[in-house]
Amino acid sequence: MQDEQPIQQSHLQVKTDLKALTEVLQWFEEKVSPLITQDVFWQCQVALAEGFTNAVRHAHQERFWTTSIDLEVLVFHNYLEMRIWDYGKPFDMLAKLQSLDKEAQDPLEKEGGRGLIFMQQLTDQLDYLRVSGNRNCLMMRKKI
Q1: Which tens digits make up the pLDDT trace of 53-102?
Q2: What CATH number is given to the structural domain containing 78?
Q3: In what order do the strands lie in the sheet containing 135-143?
Q4: How many domains does the chain have?
Q5: How far apart are CA 78 and CA 87, in angstroms?
Q6: Would residue 42 count as lying in a domain?
Q7: Which of 24, 62, 68, 127 could potentially form a cystine with 139 if both were Cys, beta carbons 3.0 to 4.6 Å apart?
Q8: CA 43/CA 40 separation, integer angstroms
Q9: pTM for this structure?
Q10: How many Å apart are CA 41 and CA 111, to the nearest integer?
C-alpha cells in the first residue's frame, strides 16, 4: 500500500474557526463524493467533521483563530485516507479511547469523547502522531 499512487489527492488549509467546517465539508464532497459509495462517503464525512471540530475545540483551544489547520484527502483504489494537522499539545489518543471504554457511563451519553469514538467506529484505522514542525497529524483510513 505504501508505494501505491492516489487516484485523487487534495489539500485544504483553513483557520481555527468552527465556521470553516462548511468549507471543509464542501471541499470533501467535491473531491471525494464522485469516487466512493454514498455509505462510505457519509461515514468519512462524519469522521472528518469530528476530527476537524476536535482540532478547533481541543487542540487549538489556546491558539489564535488565525492558526491554520491543514487537511488532506487521498483516494486510492481500495481505501480513502484523511489527514488533519494541528498545532496543539500532543496527547495519547489510544489511552484516551481506552479510558472511555472503561467508564461505567456510556461515553456516547456524555458530551466529551464522542468524537473520538465516532472516528474509531467509522474508520478502519485511526492514528494520531506528533510530526515535524510541532504539529500533530490525525490520520483516518477507510476501505472503499
Answers
A1: 999 999 999 999 999 999 999 999 999 999 999 999 988 888 888 887 77
A2: 3.30.565.10
A3: 8-15, 68-75, 79-86, 135-143, 125-131
A4: 1
A5: 30
A6: yes
A7: 127
A8: 5
A9: 0.88
A10: 25
